[in-house]
Amino acid sequence: MGQSVLWAAAGTGFTFFMTALGASMVFFFRTKVNDGAQRIFLGFAAGVMIAASVWSLLIPAIEEAENQGMIGWVPAAGGFLLGIGFLMALDSLIPHLHIGADKPEGRSSSWKRTTLLIFAVTLHNIPEGMAVGFTFALAAQHGNDPALYTGAMALAIGMGIQNFPEGAAISLPLRQEGVPAWKSFIYGGLSGIVEPIFGILAVLIAGSIQPLLPWLLAFAAGAMMYVVVEELIPEAHLGEHSNIGTLGVMAGFLVMMVLDVALG
Known about the structure:
By secondary structure, this protein is mainly alpha-helical. It has helices spanning 2-23, 35-67, 73-93, 113-141, 146-176, 181-190, 194-208, 213-237, 243-263. Helix content is 78%, strand content 0%.
């Protein structure tokens, strides 16, 4: 358990670092991200999360369930639906504002526009932290299997790669809102702090209820897929046909698939 917690802390610490690194772009660029580049980044993040949901979470969930003598698709489907419900609940309860949107979502609040922007990105990062944590928990459950650990590391690398533009995508708009550069950097970087928090929590939860690990892996997959379909893909296309956004999705899917298969 202790080793898996350390690995999860390292993996999600890397994803947090990449978010902060992306947020540091506010010191080099004072303008917002180009619309075309924004579509590529959002599409890429969506592709990474789709591939991670399948190769790093759902397939291991099915295999783990079958190893425990269960029908593989039952916890995979059940956990997937629970993950969707979890993100839907957060989406409807927590006030947040997506970049480029005029009206906030979730419950009405008197929070500042900048706070609502930060919460929108923070919501994305919760399932990513859980996903990395649960994959390290799976490796620990199998006697620290090196192949499972490298697969978990591949997932952390993929999440980290797509977190770089995500950090920039929050800090630069904050700068445009009139927030000082150093504050924009801090807010953008801290939007990723939920990943280590939820990653470590995921390991601790999975370690105490190991038979539910297939459900938990699928839960993280469902939560990530909700983010992809509800937010990332629509934003990558911005309501119109966009080949560049579509290519971004394909590129992200390909990168995450290769990482998972090559390392896992």
